[in-house]
Every structure is written in structure tokens, then in C-alpha cells.
Amino acid sequence: MKAKNKIPTVPISGFLTNALGILKNPLPFHHKNFEEQGDIFRLKIGLSNSVVFVRDAAFAEYVLQKNQKNYTKSKIQTEDLVKYIGKGLLTSEGELWKKQRKLIQPAFHKKQLENLLGSIKRAILTEYDKITDNTNTDVFPILNDLAFQTVVKSLFSSAASQEDINRLQYITEAAQKMLVRELRQPYLGWWFSWSGEIKKHLDLTLEARQILKRIVNERRLSQTKENDLLDMLLDAKYDDGSSMEEEQLIDEILILFTAGHETTSNALTFITQLLALHPEWQEKIYNERLQIQQESTDTIDLVTKSKDCQKVIEEAMRLYPPVYFIDRVNIEADCFKGLDIEAKSNLLFSVYEIHRHPKLWERPTEFLPERFNEGSRKFSSQYFPFGAGPRKCIGNNFAMFEMIIAVSELLSIYKIQPNFKTIEVTPLISLKPKNAFLTFQKRN
């Protein structure tokens, strides 16, 4: 296999001289390299280590869908993340992943999720009761709690105490922050081990597992049916008729906490910020809701018929995708557009850059929900808020249902005004908002 062109390379000096800036926010550094090197470049991060950064949507589609069997998740997810949340759908590969996906998929079908809409709505409204109107409010903590409570109530109904919920949320977020430090500062790995920082966070993870085991065992002993996600996971059977073992069940629950609340709280914060900057879309969603409720008060009708709301959510996730990078490693050598991809190359696909690529999107940096008038399928080859291919997020329908309810309910109570000049981001494992200060004014 002979390449026509070599992948442009940014030397290790470029990485080291920008190390502090990368630690704080790597996006400007990556954007500069994409502009200078093209849509695919290699960044040297050590004497023998490098990462291939990609904002070529066709390459992403090729890796995630067309030739996905030759690509696996990187060590970041299959090893580094595993030590904190175990081997579940997000972090497993091969036969284990196939087995778990087949088992869990039915719990996330739209028809099954309809049973959870009442719990989701109640959890959302409970958090909105905590909003103080006409004050300068950082909306992220509110929406972060909302997203976590929504996952907990959908999983456990009323089985988890508030004390358990608070502890699980603290541990989930502490583990993520520790992992970010390990990934961004690999040269301090010896210090993290020697100082006991890693052990401290692993002990916290063990504590979370014990809390979850207690909740699961209490549900089993109660022999009651709540029709929540825990019941669905407990009732799920493999092809041989067996159920999930306890450790595997805990792994899957931990992953639902991590993936299910973090990304949604980030997305909802960006959505509310964009709506604050564009009050005309607040009114469109509000009036759309009034029209829908004249015909039906069922939450499922609100979720399926709120087209303006869905357009806003989709456009917000284009501009600020919570999962802003997708990582893959190729098993065998490959070739794309004449470029040799050596076996075991570390590939990072920048969803953030693909979603803002000037060759793919008209006025790419502007908030234009109307671009999704025909739905998101029109852009399926360049729009990846939930990934793509077989590894597409299993909870994408859950997340969309939750976000539509959250946005619609919020705008039925409040008008939102911005107390910020520009939307700021903090890129961690997911793309997090920063300084999201708003004022909520109650509607008459």
C-alpha cells in the first residue's frame, strides 16, 4: 500500500511549547493546526507517540460506519476510563460489547422510553422549582443536577435516597476530573500514583459501586415492579436465558450515570445560552407548545411534535457538541484519500471542527436552527452529535426526549436573558460550558 501523500506532521516542539494552553483549552491549538495543515494532521506528543487529528467528515463516516470493523476505541476508553466506570457499553469492545448491546438495546427503544416520560418530567420540574427569578444565575449547576436527577429517577424511580444521589453525583464528577488530569498531564503520572491521588479516586469509585449494589439488592428483595430502567436491566435475558451478573450490571449503571448526565447537562446549558441570545426562538418554542397542548396534554405528543424545539437542540449540538472528539485505533493498516494509516494509529476525530467546517455548512459559526427544517438526516454524513455507525450512543432517544421536555417546560415558565458576552467552553472529557450566567424572568 503506497501513499500518494504523507500526513502533515506537527512536531513535538509544537506540542510542548503549547502545553499549558492545551491543558486549559486545546481547541484553539487544534483549530490553528487544521487551518495550517489541512483536515488531517499528525501531532507528535512524545518521541514515539503521535495522534492523528481529523476534521474530514468523509473519513469519520468511513471509520465509524463503512469500515468500522477495522477500528476500535482507544486506550483512553478501553483502559483509562475502565478503571473508574468498569467495562460496559461505552468502554467494552468485541464480543462483550455485542452481547451487552443486544441485551440492553430494547430498554432504550422509543416505545419503552414512553414509560419513563412521567418520571423525567417530574424530575425536571422539581429542579426548576429551585430557580430564583430576576437574579444573575449560573444555569449550569441547575441543569447539571437536573440531568443527574433525571438519570437517577429513570433508573431507580424512588429507590435512591437524596443522600445516595448526592454522593453518586460527587463521585461521578470527581472521577471524571481525575481522568482529565491524567490524560492532559501524562508527565505527572508518577506523582498521581505516588501521592495517592489515583488510589483516592479508585476508592471513591468502589464506594459508588457499593451504594449501587445496595440499591439493586433492595429492589430484588422488594419484588416490586417500578417499570424503570433498573427493572428493564434486571429482567433482560441473554440468548441462553441468563441475566446480567451483578458486577456487569453495576458497570452498566455507572456508565449510564457518566454518559447520561454529563453530556445532557452540557448540551442543555449551551441550548439555554443560545436561546438567551436569540429570544425569537424562545417565543417560537413557547407558541409551538401552546398549539400542541390545545390538541393534547400527553407528554409523548409534546416530545414528538415539538419541531421548533428539536431544531434548536440539533443546532445547539452542532455548534457545541458535548462529545466533541471521537477516538479510534485501526487494527490493520488502512488507506484513505491516498494517505497511509499505519496499523495501531491513534485517531481523534474532531466533531467540533467537522460541525463548523466551512465547506460543509453554510454560515457555520452562526446559530441557524432553520437549517434543520428537514430534520438532521439530511446531514447524516457530517453531523455526529451522538456518534455514528454501530457504536452510536444507545441513549440518543432518551437524551432527545429529556432535552425537549426540559427546554419546553423551562420556556413555559420563564423568558431567558443573557448575562454573558460570548459563550465560553471548558473542554474536558466532554465539552463543558463556562460562565453560563442568565436571568430568568417569569412569564405572566
Structural overview:
This protein is an alpha+beta fold. It is 54% helix and 12% strand. It has 20 helices and 13 strands. The chain has helices at 12-17, 19-24, 27-37, 57-66, 75-80, 82-85, 94-104, 110-113, 117-128, 139-156, 162-184, 189-194, 197-222, 229-235, 246-277, 279-295, 299-305, 307-319, 351-354, 396-413; strands spanning 9-10, 40-44, 50-54, 71-72, 136-138, 325-330, 334-336, 339-341, 346-350, 414-418, 424-427, 431-434, 437-442. The strands form 4 sheets. The chain has a 6-stranded mixed sheet with strand order 1-2-3-9-6-4, sandwiched between helices. A 3-stranded antiparallel sheet has the order 5-13-10. Strands 7-8 form a two-stranded antiparallel sheet. Helix 13 (197-222) packs across helix 15 (246-277) and helix 15 (246-277) packs across helix 20. The chain is globular and about 60 Å long.
**Spatial strand arrangement across the major sheet:** 1-2-3-9-6-4
Overall mean confidence score, pLDDT:
91
Question: What is the general shape?
Answer: globular
Number of strands: 13
Query: What does the main sheet amount to?
Result: 6 strands, mixed
Number of distinct helices: 20
CATH topology of the domain at 1-87 and 324-371: Uridine Diphospho-n-acetylenolpyruvylglucosamine Reductase, domain 2
Rg from C-alpha positions? 22 Å
What amount of the residues lies in strands?
5-15%
In helices, the fraction of residues equals: 40-55%
CATH architecture annotation name of the domain at 1-87 and 324-371: 2-Layer Sandwich
> Which residue ranges are poorly predicted, with pLDDT under 50 across at least 5 consecutive positions?
none
First-residue to last-residue Cα separation: 68 Å
Class by alpha and beta content: alpha+beta
CATH class of the domain at 1-87 and 324-371: Alpha Beta
